Amino acid sequence: MLRSFIRPTSICSTLLLGGCAVQGAPSFALVGAYFPDWMLCGMIGIAVAVTLRVVFVLTGVDALLSLRLFTYLSLGVITALLAWLIWFGP
Amino acid sequence: MKKVSLSTSSPIGFAIAAVCILGAIGLGVYVSRQDGAYPSSDSGSIDAEVVHMASTVGGRLIALPVHVNQAVKKGDLLYRLDPEPYELAVRQAEANLALAAAEVENQKRLLAVKTANAAVAQDQTTRAQTNHDLAARTVERLKPLAGHAYIPWQQYDQARVALNDAAVSLAQSHQQASAAQIAIGDLKSSLAAQQAAQAMLDQARYALRQTTVIAPTDGYVTSLRVKEGEILAPSQVLFTLVANDTWYASANIREITLHAIAPGDCATVYSMIDRHTPLHGHVESIGWGVASLDSAGLARGLPLVPREMDWVHVAQRFPVRIRLDPADPRLLRLGATATVEIRHGEACH
């Protein structure tokens, strides 16, 4: 039962994320310097946290939350770590 | 504008916050473990072995068929020094050898003469012995005759004198024979001189061969800035040959993750000349030592220990040497920036 559940999801996630997989070195050239992969992930985390805040305020979800700073911080961290795992993880 | 309350205290809100925080912590621990188990470095460099091309002899550069950045094959002529002084040295050494050989022949003739002289001296000894025996017998014979006055005393005295004379001659001939035997000697010194001349000739020929420098390995000519006519001292480096037979990547890995690396591990290396092409390699070895600023010990004297109270210490890094499989030569340049992923990455699936 559990096995039959995990298999399709893992295949789905592989298909979904395979398209997003970053090809090449985990280091990006920008105006003649190389920036590490984790810096990009951090940027994504910050952007996602800010976006989520805006979306939640607009949809009213924000009103349900408490400890908002920690919640949005955690959401940003989770996004950044997931991005790293998916794109650059072993 | 609608005012958003900042101090909602609904249980759902706390639950969501708790889930998010715990999720972030859990994911953070997981990612940190993964990062430790699969080390990577973005400050590596492409590395190769080099040969500083120089000749053991000096002289004027007369031929330089290679130019800078050219690829050469093992055995190709790289440059040639003026061989004339070394050819002259070879001729001189050849003449010295001929002289030594002639001296050996001379000594052989002398030896033959001395041997013959020794034989003559030996024969003289035999003759002196015979004469001495005859003189002795004569004295023995004349002694009773002289006693009975059958012969004059004068005749007996003459025989005794002749015996003394023969004894002196015998002793002298013995001494002459032994001196002649000693004087024969041998060829050792002249043969040794010949061997020394032969070694000098071999040395001169070796120096002559060193005027031609050939490529010891496949490679690229770098940092060549002179032309024919330059005068080179012995062992002066003319240019550097970057060996093209094996390429390496060198990545500095922190000591806390070194435990996850073993020689033979697969490695994905990206040369930043083209960051989209993964290069496949294997960990060959991990550096056994780096110089540490904390232990800047002079060869003699006391260790230099700075006064400090640092609480945070940055991890030491050790160079990990990765041997690359044959790859596109355009990506391989000595010193190029490299990103290294050990036991993971595109090339290690």
TrEMBL record, chain A:
The chain crosses the membrane at residues 34-57, 69-87. InterPro entries: YtcA. The keyword Transmembrane applies. Its main location: membrane. GO terms for cellular component: membrane. It is a multi-pass membrane protein. The keyword Lipoprotein applies. It comes from the Bacteria. Pfam families: Ytca. It is found in: Membrane. Keywords: Cell membrane, Lipoprotein, Membrane, Palmitate, Signal, Transmembrane, Transmembrane helix. Belongs to the YtcA family. This is Uncharacterized protein YtcA.
UniProtKB/TrEMBL annotation, chain B:
Keywords: Membrane, Transmembrane, Transmembrane helix. The chain crosses the membrane at residues 12-31. SUPFAM superfamilies: HlyD-like secretion proteins. Residues 246-342 form the p-hydroxybenzoic acid efflux pump subunit AaeA-like beta-barrel domain. Residues 50-241 form the Multidrug resistance protein MdtA-like barrel-sandwich hybrid domain. InterPro entries: AaeA-lik-b-barrel (IPR058634), MdtA-like_BSH (IPR058625), MFP_Efflux_Pump (IPR050393). It comes from the Bacteria. NCBIfam families: PRK10476.1 (NF007785). This is Multidrug resistance protein MdtN. It comes from Acetobacter orleanensis.
